[in-house]
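re: ur question from yesterday

yeah so i grabbed the chain u mentioned. its 244 aa long if i counted rite. heres the sequnce exactly as i have it in my notes:
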Amino acid sequence: MKANKITFRLTGSKALFSDPITRVGGEKFSYPVPTYQALKGICESIYWKPTFVWVVDRVRVMNAIRTESRGIRVPRYGEGNDLSIYTYLADVQYIVDAHFEWNEHRENLANDRNENKHFFIAQRMLERGGRRDIFLGTRECQGYVEPCRFDDDYGYYDNTSLSFGIMVHGIDYPDETGLEKLRTRLWNARMENGVIEFIRPDECTMFFDSVNYSAKTFVSGENFSGLDEFEKEGIFDGMDDKTL
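ran it thru and got these structure tokens back, copy pasting raw so excuse formatting
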């Protein structure tokens, strides 16, 4: 295993990776598979520091794609409530491959670029189910993660290939791109033998810009403590220089 890579099983009773086209009228309808951005957010819930950026390599769809609709009471603008129909994915299970890369736009955190440190912390957080709660697209969809191998078990679509058309790939944030704006990426999603191989964010050719947005500043000792994680996590206790 590479020292910057994690592989994990992701499960949940329901998920909602909402298609933005269906949200205009207050309804929500899930994409049939998770987006790159949703899986990246789950990696960040497992473990994240502004020193690095998670890159999702691929996802394996283990269970059959099934949907279920529910009536949700939502606040109406002005007063009262409305009834909206949310369409969720039911009984989901995925296996995800991801790795982290240094955020070159955070030069002030260059001293925190220790691959072994972040890898071992990420592994420990994964074994504990994540540092923060795992959500499958939205807060009411609780998810669970555990370490595994990518080829574990039989997947429902192992011998099937499908095209999902144009989907949202993810969002470019200023602290990861150096641009003073948010940018939404699109791509043509396809599954081959149950596996979706994601293209890298910088390989997306379809995108549109939204609002102007500035990167958040992280200052060690004020709103960032990552440089002290060696001692806090204690993950290198008993290891010598040769081990690292």
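noticed a couple things. Confidence is low (pLDDT under 50) at residues 233-244. also The radius of gyration is 19 Å.
anyway ttyl
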